[in-house]
Structure formats: C-alpha cells, structure tokens
Design goal:
By secondary structure, the protein is an alpha+beta fold. The protein has one domain. It has helices at about 35-45, 45-70, 75-85; strands at about 10-15, 20-25, 35.
Length: about 80
C-alpha cells in the first residue's frame, strides 16, 4: 500500500507541563490548531465521524468557494465534458 503524502505541518510543544500538538496548514500559518493528549484521544475515537463530516460538507464548501472565485468545481467541469459528448 502506498504511503499517503501528508499535507501540513505539525510539532509537539508543552503548555503548563502538558504535552501538546500544534497543526498548521503552512509553516507560516497564523492560526494553528493546538490540542493536548485528552483531545487527541477523543479525535482518534471519533475519526470515522470526522471523516464522514468532511465528506458530507466539503463538496458544498468547495462549490460555494468556486462560485465566489468564479471558478468551476471539478464535478462541474466533468459534467460539462459529458454534455459536450
């Protein structure tokens, strides 16, 4: 099985003697996502629900963003290709 390319950046830190993980989209990300061990365990327990949430809502967000930016979504581009045939 091929290893997935990981996007983003992470680092471990400490806050008041508690171990933390800091997640960033880019190295210069101004608003990183930071949490400790208890929340990390909670995220792992609920990973299937998080994946389903992203799968459910990401297409609508991407479509709205494309409309704001005046671009086509990948799905719309495929539909247009089918219509031309």
């Amino acid at each position: 099985m091929a290893k997935e390319k990981v996007k983003g950046f992470s680092e471990e830190t400490k806050y008041k003697d508690n171990h933390m993980i800091v997640l960033r989209r880019t190295e210069e990300d101004r608003f990183p996502f930071q949490f400790g061990l208890n929340k990390a365990e909670l995220i792992l327990l609920n990973l299937p629900a998080i994946e389903a949430f992203v799968a459910k809502h990401k297409p609508a967000r991407d479509k709205a963003k494309a409309e704001r930016d005046g671009e086509e979504t990948k799905g719309e581009a495929k539909d247009k290709k089918k219509e031309k045939k």
